[in-house]
Amino acid sequence: MPASHRFIRFRSRRHRLLRMYRTVADFTYDLEVWVGPAGNLLYISPSCSRVTGFEADDALRDPGFFARIIAADDFPRWRQAMDVRGDIPSMDFRIRRRDGTEIWLAQETTRVFDPGGRFEGWRLSLRDVTDRVRTRMFLDQARLHLEERVRERTEELEVSRERYRALSGYLQDSIEKERGRISREIHDVLGQDLTALNMGLHRLERSFPQGDARQGQVAELRGLVAGTLETVRRISRELRPPMLDELGFAEAVAWLTRTFAQSSGLRIDLKAGPIPDLSTEQSTALYRVLQEALTNAARHSGASCIDVRVQASDAVLTLDVSDNGVGMTAGRTESSDSLGIMGMRERIRMVGGTLEITAPAAGGTTISARVPLAREAGPCAS
């Protein structure tokens, strides 16, 4: 083939390829820009008119085209990214269209090389992502608003919880004081009246002649009064055992376990080490926990034996109450319906301690209360 024919075919093929590539570039939906190595604009696709409102030829002749359309707040960031020698990350920024409206563009940047590997600038692909950005901003604003509402509600709940705890503490303290007052009234007033009545009946019994049938009637009344007097003393001790205030926690625990074993028929093993001085609040809280734990074991567990352990370390006093009953479900130990358990937790929490309930699948339940001890406290009883 003559050289002239080969040249004509080469030019024809080059013309077809150039037309094909130009068609692809000119009809690309996104705004396509070719920026030369020196930062000069080499090509801007006709979609510039649709995206920016400016004609592509006008933009191409304007060296400060991007500086003019990119929002003033975003241009320094865009300029800094374009000055990087290397890959340019994806970025979003705002532009001001010719009609004055503001839109968001997403830019993807690719470095351009000729077939010989020589760097020939950057290809910018810019797409209108205004709807996407506004949706994201709306969602971000909604998320922030939701987080703020959650924070406010959390603070309100925390305030409510603190108020509940303060009220609970006040009620617990008031109940203990009222129990103590009623216990003293029963012991001091009703107990003394019954004692005086018993003594009066005794004198009346002795005033009758020997063998008088009325002596027997008075004796029966004295027996009834004596039984009532014992019942009154028991109720008084159960309301507020005097040894808790007079002799301390160790004696109160010994009395409670002994009398509970007698009344319930359960075997109760008590092991207590040296117990340091406790505050009134601590001894009352631990005593009420022991009382509730023993009652729960007797009522609900079907246990035949209960172990009570009281141990003190340098910083903590631990009360463990374990039974060999049927155990407790995991849900019940944390249930808000278990008022007894809630009451035990609240009492121990109010004195700065913790309460833990363990119920293994094999059966049995252990209630462990731990309260902090004052460092200067020393052992006083066992």
Notes on the protein architecture:
By secondary structure, the chain is an alpha+beta fold. 19% of the residues are buried. A hairpin with a 5-residue loop joins strand 1 and strand 2. Mean pLDDT is 88; it is low at 377-382. 55% of the residues lie in helices and 20% in strands. It has a five-stranded antiparallel β-sheet. A five-stranded mixed β-sheet has the order 6-8-9-11-10.
Quick summary of this structure?
Helices cover 55% and strands 20% of the residues. It is of the alpha+beta class and 382 residues long.
Question: SSE layout and pairings?
Answer:
Layout: H1 3-26, E1 31-35, E2 41-44, H2 48-52, H3 56-60, H4 65-69, H5 75-82, E3 91-96, E4 102-113, E5 119-128, H6 130-207, H7 213-239, H8 242-246, H9 249-264, E6 267-272, E7 275-276, H10 280-301, E8 305-312, E9 316-323, H11 330-334, H12 339-350, E10 354-358, E11 365-372, E12 379-381
Parallel strand pairs: 6-8
Antiparallel strand pairs: 1-2, 1-5, 3-4, 4-5, 7-12, 8-9, 9-11, 10-11
Helix pairs in contact: 6-7, 9-10, 10-12
**Largest sheet descriptor:** 5 strands, antiparallel
**Strand arrangement, largest sheet?**
2-1-5-4-3
What is the average per-residue confidence, as pLDDT, rounded to a whole number? 88
The arrangement of helices and strands along the chain is HEEHHHHEEEHHHHEEHEEHHEEE
Class by alpha and beta content: alpha+beta
The residue ranges in which pLDDT falls below 50 over 5 or more consecutive positions are 377-382
DSSP strand count: 12
Shape: rod-shaped
Specify the helix fraction band.
55-70%
Number of helices: 12
* Rg result: 45 Å
β-strand amount: 15-25%
Distance between the termini: 120 Å
